[in-house]
Fold these 2 entries.
Entry 1:
Amino acid sequence: MTSIIKRFYTIVGNVTLEHVKQQNKNGAQWALSIDKCAKEEEAGDSKIKKVKIKGAKAHKSHKDPSDQQDVISLQFLDENESRIKSKHVHEDGTSK
């Protein structure tokens, strides 16, 4: 018999999913995309405990000019809020 372990990430920092919803035309979709990405990353790495949204407003990537879609940047953090990795989330739920 296998056991299922559920983990739930915590959003830290000044930006919340509610801010994302308010700052973007399709804010509810952006919030769903952020949640999808966070759950996928958390499931893939047990060290990820927290997520920091690095700005509520979707924008063109400064670090990846080849990305033509608007992005919202996320940082994935451990329990002590040390950064493990970062990702850009797109409105359609994809990320890189």
Note: The two ends are 35 Å apart (CA to CA).
Entry 2:
Amino acid sequence: MSISLLSIILLLFLAESSYSWYSNPYIEKANLDFLLIQPNNRALGMGNAFVALADDASATWWNPAGLVKTKSSEVMISHTFEVPPPIVDCFDHSYLFIARTKPLDESTVIALSGVQHLWGHTERRCELNSGQSFNQWDYSVAFSYGVKINKQFATGLSVKYINSQKESGGELAQIKHLALDAGMLYNTDQSSSFKHSFGLVIRNIGPKFRYGDKEEFKSLPTNLNVGYALTAISRVGPTNVLFDINKRLNKLQMDTFFRNFTYHMGIETWLDDVFGIRVGQWYDNIERDSTLSLGASLRIKKLIKTKEVQIDFSRYFPGRKLTGYSSVGKYAFSLGISQSASS
């Protein structure tokens, strides 16, 4: 069975339900902030700390320099949709992420990924109470390139094409835009039982945009993500300890500089390279509230010839200030599948 056929089958059966992108109420919806939605449910289980690890196909989003950690070709598919209770913005959301990596040699990996964010058929009942309806959507396609400079240092770049449609002044407006992600990764001696990794990425670098002639120009949701990962190797399996700091760069104001951060931390351990468990937490320094997350993985080897399938599950529990609903987090779950094949 080919990778493309397997991808279609997985897409039909794959569904993940998650409110992860609503954890920060300061995200301005429909302003290309879908670019900040992280696609990896494994990372969600570790409190969204992943920039220094980034060792699978989701590195196209997390840190393109991490692509050099993928030892063979990979396919990752993730599909997200909203579940009750409804979120306060009255939109019906779905989010699809697909990525395909391809090593060119021992030091170079390229990848192609796509994101589709659908707002669905939306009634304008929340603010205007008009009963009108419209469709909103966003999508992006990225080409990523990761290369090892030496045994310890790697760098990467993603070029993204963005297309978005939303309501502007009572009419639908569409934009087409370009953005860049740039990342770096430093790894210590890989022969040691304790491996240290440091990652840095700047996402969504590009010019300002606007949906219609009546709107003001807005900045892309540019953000800086810095992370540290400790990997301990044992007879049972590897254990990863991660810590990330995230900051929006297009909202730099000196009076709020040290308050506009989110802090992410998580732990992951693998048992016999088959079953993984993880726990994480992230803290929003604006709302001064935190979110707890849990996750698990099942890795099935040689499911189809030499191919490998990994299923990731995660669930998180946001604080009251971060959702507006005290029960939202109790019903959120996510599922992701990645496939590894011979290159």
Note: The first strand starts at residue 16 and ends at 17.
